[in-house]
């Protein structure tokens, strides 16, 4: 495994809300401590998709970064999602995240307006120029559209920027990832749980994991086994987690699934914000069953 600049096992952290839907900073502090001190995570990604960033205000985003960083201190890195479809807005969010104490930035490719590769590259370079923080690019064409998938040429060019250091890869394109790993110094983090181990095998540095919210030690155990050269153990642990991964990302978004499990376990989470809908009792029980099985099988 390459040594990653932004941790190894990062949870794509949910954003806790109170029962009336307001931001819950105290809950976020409690959850951040749980994920890092008991959950095996050495980094937390906040204000991302799993964190319901499309429905939180700029002020709430900054408050969340301050709360989470205050809770974990030097025990973990805090990476703040700042990507939007508007370059100026992304720059503002990046500067706000730096002021709030973030250790790094996660910047998704601009979506909806379908910019060219040149426009995408300039957008990402502009955000990287806006602060002194290291930047993790977010390549996720399933959510941003195939036209905004980062091309190999764009990644080569972006890798030349001194603060662009990593990629969260949800492209499902191991060929592209392998070529970037071979030709640049970018660190690759798997954002698609089913590809965690395959990406490690070609030089990945770690994961940004939704499953780590509920099974952090088990996700971390795959990384630890692989780093120790215990590839059979890593494969067994990886395969044992796949039914849980399927349950978390199958019929509902991962945010909905994680918050349902947290509610059942008495952990901070609260409701999801519209347009998301909460999981019903039947789905919650199914998720809990898969989680119990995964925790048993992955030991």
Automatic annotation (TrEMBL):
Keyword Transit peptide: no
Record-annotated membrane-spanning stretches: none
Catalytic site positions: 138 (proton donor/acceptor), 168 (schiff-base intermediate with substrate)
Keyword Amino-acid biosynthesis found: yes
Chief location bin: cytoplasm
Binding site for pyruvate: 50, 208
UniProt-listed PROSITE patterns: DHDPS_1
EC number(s) stated in the UniProt entry for this protein: 4.3.3.7
Top-level class of the enzyme under EC nomenclature: lyase
Pathway terms, separated by semicolons: Amino-acid biosynthesis; L-lysine biosynthesis via DAP pathway; (S)-tetrahydrodipicolinate from L-aspartate: step 3/4
SMART domains the record matches: DHDPS (SM01130)
Catalysed reactions listed for this entry: L-aspartate 4-semialdehyde + pyruvate = (2S,4S)-4-hydroxy-2,3,4,5-tetrahydrodipicolinate + H2O + H(+)
Matches recorded under SUPFAM superfamilies: Aldolase
GO molecular function, one term: 4-hydroxy-tetrahydrodipicolinate synthase activity
InterPro entries listed in its UniProt record: Aldolase_TIM, DapA, DapA-like, Schiff_base-form_aldolases_CS
Part of a proton relay during catalysis (site feature) positions: 49, 112
This protein's UniProt keywords: Amino-acid biosynthesis, Cytoplasm, Diaminopimelate biosynthesis, Lyase, Lysine biosynthesis, Schiff base
Subunit details: Homotetramer; dimer of dimers.
Functional description taken from the UniProt entry: Catalyzes the condensation of (S)-aspartate-beta-semialdehyde [(S)-ASA] and pyruvate to 4-hydroxy-tetrahydrodipicolinate (HTPA).
Name of this protein: 4-hydroxy-tetrahydrodipicolinate synthase
């Amino acid at each position: 495994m390459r040594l990653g600049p932004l941790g190894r096992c990062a949870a794509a952290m949910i954003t806790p809300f109170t029962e009336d839907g307001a931001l819950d900073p105290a809950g976020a502090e409690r959850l951040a401590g749980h994920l890092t001190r008991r959950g095996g995570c050495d980094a937390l990604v906040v204000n991302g998709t799993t964190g319901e960033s499309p429905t939180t205000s700029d002020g709430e985003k900054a408050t969340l970064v301050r709360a989470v960083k205050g809770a974990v201190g030097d025990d973990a890195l805090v990476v703040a999602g700042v990507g939007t479809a508007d370059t100026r807005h992304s720059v503002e969010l990046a500067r706000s995240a730096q002021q709030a104490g973030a250790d790094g930035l996660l910047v998704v490719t601009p979506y909806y307006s379908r910019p060219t590769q040149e426009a995408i590259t300039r957008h990402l370079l502009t955000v990287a120029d806006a602060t002194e923080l290291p930047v993790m690019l977010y390549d996720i064409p399933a959510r941003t559209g195939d036209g905004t998938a980062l091309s190999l040429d764009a990644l080569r060019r972006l890798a030349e920027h001194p603060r662009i250091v990593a990629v969260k890869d949800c492209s499902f394109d191991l060929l592209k990832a392998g070529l970037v790993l071979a030709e640049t110094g970018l660190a690759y983090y798997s954002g698609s749980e089913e590809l965690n181990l395959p990406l490690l095998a070609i030089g990945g540095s770690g994961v940004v994991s939704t499953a780590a919210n509920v099974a952090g030690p088990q996700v971390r155990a795959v990384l630890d086994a692989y780093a120790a050269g215990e590839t059979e153990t890593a494969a067994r642990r990886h395969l044992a987690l796949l039914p849980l991964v399927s349950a978390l990302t199958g019929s509902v978004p991962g945010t909905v699934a994680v918050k349902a499990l947290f509610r059942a376990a008495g952990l901070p989470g609260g409701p999801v914000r519209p347009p998301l809908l909460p999981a019903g009792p039947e789905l919650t029980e199914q998720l809990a069953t898969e989680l119990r099985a995964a925790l048993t099988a992955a030991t």
